Amino acid sequence: MNELVCLEVSIALWFVHVFTQGAFAGSALGMRYLVGARDTIVQPKGALFSRASRALANYVENLGPFVAADLGLILTGHHGGAGATAWVVARIVYLPLYMAGVPVARTICWLISLAGLATMLFRLAS
Fold first, then answer.
1. Prediction pTM value
2. CATH fold label, 3-125
């Protein structure tokens, strides 16, 4: 995938993360809480909403640097090699592994995404 396609897929994947979290929000927090002012803190029920929330937070933390590097590559006309593609593919695989509670493979996906990001930054700097 080229850098522009990777950017588009990364945004689509953000929606997937948000909708995954939302799919478990009603049963975890209750509809009254979700449509209310949320003045009190409610402890979520079940593991899936919490996993989806942590996966979304992790994605958002990693999306910023990816977008910055990807836009830098696009604007300068550099090619990120396989870095952007590696980041996107690893992040696609990461979510179902996180939701299934698979510990080691999930971490490996995260490390692959970091390696992809490092590759992008190396290409941008050269």
1. 0.90
2. Four Helix Bundle (Hemerythrin (Met), subunit A) (1.20.120)
